[in-house]
Amino acid sequence: MSSVFSKIIDGEIPGRFVYRDDRVAAFLTIEPIRYGHTLVVPIKEVDKWTDLEPELLSHLNEVAQLVGRAIIEVFGSERAGYLIAGFEVPHAHIHVFPADNMQGYDLSTVMSPEETDDAKMDDAAERLRAAIDVDRSGRA
């Protein structure tokens, strides 16, 4: 059975992509800590990040760093938060989000999909894609 992330990657569920290549996709989460909160996900379904092949994990981190730099640029945050939790969806992923303090590391404080503003989500995705220099699908 495909994970929800695979369904987003495959286009079965809509997603706001900010980066995509043949091994990794990055898209906004529907439950952000702050606008710009991005999930960096391997295309290949692997439940735990500790089970990823080292080369894929390395590439996943390179993309997370690219997204993190864009987040700092676009949102003016002091840092880009980086968090691997993995309990919400059985598909390895890295949370990258605007961070000015440790508050963002508490995933119990996320906005629900009903609380988010679609226009702000679309704007965040568009601004991140521009900073990363990719098209609407997230590809260079």
UniProtKB/TrEMBL annotation:
Domain HIT as annotated: residue spans: 4-109
Active site residues of this protein: H93 (tele-amp-histidine intermediate)
Motif (Histidine triad motif): 91-95
InterPro entries in UniProt: Histidine_triad_HIT, HIT-like, HIT-like_sf
One GO MF term attached to the UniProt entry: catalytic activity
Organism field: Corynebacterium yudongzhengii
PANTHER family: ADENOSINE 5'-MONOPHOSPHORAMIDASE HNT1, HIT FAMILY PROTEIN 1
GO biological process: nucleotide metabolic process
Protein name according to UniProt: HIT family protein
PROSITE patterns the UniProt entry points to: HIT_2
